[in-house]
Amino acid sequence: MAEEEEYGQGVPKVINPLMGPIESVVEKIRYRGQLIARNQKLDSGASATGAIGFAIGFIITIILTLVIPFLVWQVV
Fold first, then answer.
1. How large is the C-alpha radius of gyration of the chain?
2. CB-side exposure of 30: number of CA atoms within 13 Å?
3. Is the pLDDT confidence value at 9 over 90?
4. 12 vs 26, which has greater pLDDT?
5. Which residues contact 10 (CB under 8 A, 6 or more apart)?
6. pLDDT 10s digits, 59-69
């Protein structure tokens, strides 16, 4: 208690930090991280099924442009 008499201020107390700006930055980082993760998942899924989708689209295109007109021409 000698400090209290000497300086007149007593024991220093801890001041609570302003957490509002820090929480705001953390939320922005979390949101951006979720967007990046979602985009990565979508990109991975599209690249994993891209070859199969291309093959199916190619087969459907061949059927619609070659087979069906040929069958219609045979009937007429």
1. 35
2. 6
3. no
4. 26
5. 3, 4
6. 999 988 988 88
Ranges assigned E (strand) in 1-76: none
Which tokens is 61 given? 């295109």
Confidence category of residue 19, pLDDT binned at 50, 70, 90: confident
User: How many whole angstroms separate alpha carbon 49 and alpha carbon 57?
Assistant: 12
The per-residue pLDDT for 16 is: 79
- What is the C-alpha to C-alpha distance for residues 12 and 64, in angstroms, rounded to an integer? 83
DSSP structure class, residue 14:
P
Mapping DSSP to helix (H, G, I), strand (E, B) and coil, where does residue 12 land?
coil
CB 62 within 8 A of CB 56: no
